[in-house]
Amino acid sequence: MTVPVQTSPSRPAPAGPPARFEVAVVGAGAAGLAAALALARDGVATALVGRHGPPADGRTVALLDGSVRFLAVLGVWPELAPHAAPLAELQIVDDTGSLFRPPPARFSAAEIGLEAFGWNVENTRLATTLRAHARTTPGLTLFEADSAGLRHGSEAALLDLEDGRSLEAQLVVGADGGRSPLRTAAGLQTRTWSYPQAALTTLLAHERPHRDISTEFHTRTGPFTLVPLPGGHRSSLVWVTAEPAAKRLSGLDDRALAAAVEHQARSMLGSMRIDGPRGLVPMRGLSVARPVAPRLALIGEAAHVFPPIGAQGLNLGLRDAAALRDAVFSAREANRDPGAPASLAGFGRTRGMDARLRGAAVDMLNRSLLTDLLPVDALRGLGLMALTAIPPLRRAVMREGVLPRLGAPTLMR
C-alpha cells in the first residue's frame, strides 16, 4: 500500500525518489483546481500537476447555484462574489422566423426560492482565484510542469513529469482537457462530433442596464446570448452562428462588431461597445463511454466537451470534481484503495449518466435550431409555451437546470 506523504504547498516538490500521494490531479484548469482543493481541504494528500493559465478570450462562465455552493465550501466564493453578476432572470426569445414562433418566455429564480440561477464571472478571474487558493492550501503540493506519461503498479500509479520528476499516487485524476493525453493513453473509448458553427465570445459595455436578466435569442444559426456582468451596464456575449459568419464577425473592427451585436440584439440594451478580448470557439462535442480506468478518473473536458450553450460545460466539470471528492471519501470510510475499480465504479456510472443527459439536451436544442422543418419548430415552440403556461413543470425544469437532485454531490447540496 502506498503511504501518502505531505510536502509543503508553497515549495516545488523535490527531485529524487517519487513523492507519494493519495491522489494526483493532472490539469490546472478550473475543474482540476477545484478537485484538488476539495480533496486537500479534507486531509487527502494531493498533488496538482499543471502549469497552463487560461487564455484571455473574452469568455465568462455562468456558475449555477450548485457550483456556487461548492466554491463557497472551498472558501473561494467570497473573493469571486464582488466580481460576479447574479442571473436573477432568464429570457428566451425565438428569433428563428418560424411559423410556430412562441412569444418570449421569462423564468425567475425567485420562483424556486433562489436569489439567482447562478452568477456570471470571467473565466480568467475564476482560474486565477482558484490557483491562488491552491498555492496556500495545506496538504496540496503543486507540480508546475506538464505530465509526460503514466505507468501502473499493483498498488499505485507512477506519473512522470516533463521536467524529469515523478510522483506516485493511488488515484490519478485526469483534468487535462478535451485532448486529454491521459484519456488517450488509457485507451478509453470516445465519441466526437462537430457542428457547422463557431461561437464568437467577447465582453460588452452597453447603454441600458441589463437588470440581472440573461437573454438568449434562438436564431436559425444558433443561440445568441447576452449574460450580465457586474455594474449593470456590462455583459458577456456568446454568439453562435455559421462558421464562416463567425470568422467574418471576428475580423471586424470594434465599432463594426459592436454595431452588429446591437442589431442582432434588437437594440434591447441600447448602443454597444466592445469592452474586452475576443474568442472564437469551435462548436464540437466529446463524450467518453466510461470516465474511469485502472487508477484513473476523468473529470471536466477530459470526460466531456460541450459547445458553449446552456452553461453546462464547466458546471458539469465542477460536479465531477465534487463527486470525485465523495468517491474518495467513501473509499476511505470503507478502508478501500481510492484507485481500486470498486471505489471508482459508482463515480463512473453517475458521472457518465449526468454527462450523457446534459449532452443530449444541448445537442437537441442546437440541432433543432439549425433545421427549418415545421414539425421540429412546432415541437420546440410548444415545449417553450408549456414551460411558460404550466408552473409546476416550469419550476421542476428550473430546479433540474440549476442542480440535479438525484446524485447531487455532498458539497453542492
TrEMBL record:
Organism of derivation: Methylorubrum zatmanii
Keywords in alphabetical order: FAD, Flavoprotein, Monooxygenase, Oxidoreductase
Protein name: UbiH/UbiF family hydroxylase
Protein family per UniProt: Belongs to the UbiH/COQ6 family.
SUPFAM superfamilies assigned to the protein according to its UniProt record, in alphabetical order: FAD/NAD(P)-binding domain (SSF51905)
Domain FAD-binding as annotated: residue spans: 21-324
Pathway listed: Cofactor biosynthesis; ubiquinone biosynthesis
Taxonomy, superkingdom: Bacteria
CC cofactor: FAD
